Amino acid sequence: MKGKVLIAEDESALVEMLSEVFEDAGFEVVAFDTADIACAQLDEHIAELSLLFTDVKMPGEKTGLDLVFAARKVRPDLPIVVSSGYFEGTEQQISQVTLLPKPWTLGKLMKACGLDPS
Predict the structure, then answer these.
(1) How far, CA to CA in Å, does 59 sit from each of 24, 25, 56, 105, 112?
(2) DSSP assignment letter at 105
(3) Structure confidence at residue 49 (pLDDT)
(4) What is the C-alpha separation between 27 and 49, in angstroms, rounded?
(5) Which of 35, 42, 86, 115 would give a disulfide with 67, using CB separation of 3.0 to 4.6 Å?
(6) How far apart are the C-alpha atoms of 97 and 80, rounded to whole Å?
(7) Which stretch of DSSP H or E encloses residue 106?
(8) Average pLDDT for consecutive 10-residue bins of the chain (118 residues)?
(9) β-pairing, 80-84 with 49-55?
(10) Secondary structure of 46-96 in the HEC alphabet?
(11) CATH 3.90.1150.10 is right for the domain spanning 3-112
(12) From CA 77, how far away is CA 74, in angstroms rounded?
């Protein structure tokens, strides 16, 4: 086991695909369909996390960026991938946060998450 990945994403098909990718790479996965729930559960998982993967816009009061800020307060070194259809351009790395514009390919996802595509 390589660690744990927390996924915050409201599209169930995407959660299934992401979970499969991360589990195949040897990670335990916890997934939440809103940032509200993910933020509420963050303390329970934060110490074990190897990666946080979040969408920006989800149902509820909080956004994926709220989740990012909450995680940063406790784990400033935690690798985070923020994926959204609201970003334009190519993936970008900003202080341990990778911005991954949707739509992305499996190869781009794996690269952004630091996974070996082979």
Answers:
(1) 28, 29, 10, 24, 25
(2) -
(3) 97
(4) 10
(5) 35
(6) 5
(7) helix 106-112
(8) 91 96 96 97 95 94 93 93 72 70 90 81
(9) parallel
(10) HHHEEEEEEECCCCCCCCHHHHHHHHHHHCCCCCEEEEECCCCCCCEEECC
(11) no
(12) 9
Alpha carbon distance 90, 79 (integer Å): 18
If you search the block for the tokens 């190519």, which residue do you land on? 90
Q: Which two tokens stand for residue 114?
A: 């630091």
The tokens describing 72, both together, are 């940063």
Residues 82 and 99: beta-carbon distance below 8 Å: yes
Gyration radius of the chain over CA positions: 13
Spatial strand order of the sheet with 92-94 comes to 27-32, 3-8, 49-55, 80-84, 97-101, 92-94
Residues in the chain: 118
Q: Which amino acid is at 66?
A: D
pLDDT of residue 22: 96
Q: What 3-state class would DSSP assign to 44?
A: helix
Residue 114 neighbours by CB under 8 Å, 6+ apart: 51, 79
